[in-house]
Design brief:
This protein has 586 residues and is an alpha+beta fold. 60% of the residues lie in helices and 10% in strands. The strands form two sheets. Strands 1, 4, 6, 7, 9 and 10 form a six-stranded antiparallel beta sheet that branches.
């Protein structure tokens, strides 16, 4: 049943994240960049002035200031997507993935400006102190009032977007964040995951019960502190390897247009895979085209939609072009992305082929090997292979390949777990290895995998997400990753979980009204706790994240495009009035 479900999930994500998705976003970003006459420049100039509060008016409708709205939006984007998501992108797609993150970041500035402007144009301000906004309200206030087929289309798009937002809220905005924090805290401080979950859930509950005003105030204080702390640490490590930076930037550009060869822990990847991974992680990080940020900006206290839109365009620049780039560089300059092995596995490993085969079918090969941790080589830093750690061996396949990278190199992974050995009278915990199956995609012409050969077998320490970034910082200054990444991950995760709770709340309000808010908040807090320890495979969680993000994107983008002319006209009118000095004071 589980295999069938994830097979369906993979099929759905294949459609949601097909080549058409990337073309839709890139073409939309290019069109909006040209149509708005490179509004990115306006965001970097006029947007900064708006951020300073020069145009704030306490009499305008809205719940929080323009800068607090940007902080709330950034707290949903500047988070573990920047620490963990970028690490996942480089690990899977290689240096070239960063280039495509830059592309999406730049084009995303124009797309985000249009999205936010549109959300403010058509937000619901029946209660001026608690406005509602987002794609569902945009289509409701426009096509939803026409009647007939237009009204039906509006209802379907709005409901799809709201449901997809709730799905993204639960997965990427909540459980993924909690899992990353729990993983880091357990790895470095041996804190059991359930304890991390309880503490996170309590902190989140205390904030979200206060509504959007408390969310905005907390985000406005957390975001600058956590960004400064993290960036100082990252820049400090990059400075140690400053002479490598120019060459690595050249490698990033070259790798964006050529396949990246396998090296060390990096399995290698095709050009298309680097493009796909970079695009997905950039979107997960800055949310351009996804429609989540405009929900936060809709709470801003302003009467000029375009002004908030220009400010919203700063988000992808700060998030992707600045923060994500620095994270990627620290991973690249320290060499942890293609790190070497820690030693050889001393036991026997055998892979048992699955029965049956068909073109492009995914087969799971079972691993038979010793579960004795003593067969693992000692870690380079002298630490133990304790519970919660993961390692992998690299296998070479003939007639099949990895379902992720498209190469013939696959990973054979093992998790270190603890159970009670019946032979131990005192009940002392005994760590042992649990081996995971190997998923393969058959070559179209071969029909069946003929052989899997282990390369070595060399043991590589598995570092997923934020753990890889922490490892990179530790390479520069031992202990830095342990303390800085753990602390900032807590802050990032907390701010992201809080902001996404508001996105889901607004979607629940649209679907069932205010009566559903309390139940939603309780469920959301419970899922923080569950996400901290119940995720067995981060790959499965990524599949859920991609499903929610993809569904949001495909519900949001038609709405953005249907009303794009009115939105761009609003932006042009604002810039005309700005140039005429209409907003000058004194």
């Amino acid at each position: 049943m589980t295999d069938s479900f994830f097979h369906w999930l993979g099929w759905a994500n294949g459609y949601l994240w097909s080549t058409g998705t990337f073309l839709l976003l890139m073409v939309s970003g290019i069109v909006f960049s040209i149509w708005t006459r490179m509004v990115q420049y306006r965001s970097l100039t006029h947007g900064v002035k708006v951020l300073s509060g020069a145009y704030d008016d306490p009499n305008d409708a809205g719940a929080i200031s323009s800068s607090e709205a940007l902080a709330a939006s950034l707290s949903g984007t500047v988070g573990l997507g920047n620490i963990g998501g970028v690490a996942l992108a480089i690990t899977a797609g290689g240096p070239g993935a960063l280039f495509w993150m830059w592309v999406i970041g730049f084009l995303g500035m124009a797309l985000k400006t249009v999205e936010v402007t549109q959300a403010l144009m058509f937000r619901n301000t029946d209660d001026p102190d608690d406005p509602h906004g987002g794609a569902m309200w945009v289509i409701e206030q426009t096509w939803g009032r026409r009647g007939g087929v237009a009204r039906l289309v509006a209802k379907v798009l709005a409901a799809t977007f709201a449901l997809a937002t709730i799905a993204s809220t639960i997965t990427g905005g909540n459980m993924f964040q909690a899992w990353n924090v729990a993983d880091l805290t357990a790895r470095y401080f041996a804190v059991p995951r359930p304890i991390t979950g309880v503490l996170l859930a309590l902190l989140v509950g205390l904030v979200i019960l206060g509504g959007v005003k408390r969310i905005g105030h907390v985000a406005g204080r957390l975001v600058p502190v956590m960004c400064a702390l993290y960036l100082v640490a990252v820049v400090g490590v990059i400075a140690l390897y400053a002479e490598q930076v120019p060459g690595l930037l050249l490698l990033v550009v070259e790798s964006a247009f050529t396949p990246t060869e396998a090296s060390g822990a990096f399995l290698g990847g095709t050009l298309g895979w680097a493009f796909s991974v970079g695009m997905r992680r950039a979107l997960f990080s800055n949310e351009a085209g996804q429609g989540s940020g405009p929900i936060a900006h809709s709470a801003a206290r302003t009467h000029e939609p375009a002004r908030q839109g220009v400010l919203g365009g700063l988000g992808p620049f700060i998030d992707t072009i600045c923060v994500c780039t620095l994270t990627a560089l620290v991973i690249l300059v320290t060499g942890v992305w293609n790190r070497g092995p820690v030693g050889e596995f001393h036991g026997q490993v055998e892979l048992l082929a699955s029965a049956g085969s068909a073109s492009h079918e995914v087969l799971s090969w079972q691993v038979e090997a010793s579960d004795d941790v003593a067969n693992l080589p000692p870690l380079a830093d002298g630490s133990e292979w304790n519970a919660g750690r993961r390692f992998f061996l690299i296998g070479l396949v003939e007639g099949a390949g990895s379902r992720d990278t498209g190469t013939n190199r696959v990973t054979v992974t093992g998790d270190i777990v603890v159970s009670l050995d019946e032979s131990m009278a005192a009940g002392e915990p005994a760590p042992h290895i649990v081996w995971n199956s190997v998923d393969l995609v058959l070559d179209e012409w071969s029909g069946t995998p003929k052989d899997i050969r282990l390369a070595g077998p060399q043991v590589y320490q598995s570092l997923d997400g934020a753990s890889l970034t922490a490892f990179a910082l530790d390479k520069g200054f031992p202990g830095l990753g342990k303390w800085v990444v753990t602390l900032t991950s807590w802050l990032f995760a907390l701010s992201t979980i809080i902001t996404w709770s508001y996105y889901g709340e607004q979607s629940a309000t649209y679907l069932v009204g205010e009566r559903g808010v309390r139940a939603y908040r309780v469920l959301y807090v419970v899922l923080v706790f569950v996400g901290a320890f119940a995720i067995a495979d981060i790959g499965d969680m990524e599949a859920f994240i991609d499903l929610g993000t993809g569904a949001m994107l495909w519900a949001n983008m038609p709405i953005v495009l249907l009303l794009s002319r009115e939105t761009v006209n609003c932006l042009n009118d604002y810039f005309r009035r700005l140039k005429a000095g209409e907003f000058d004071k004194g």
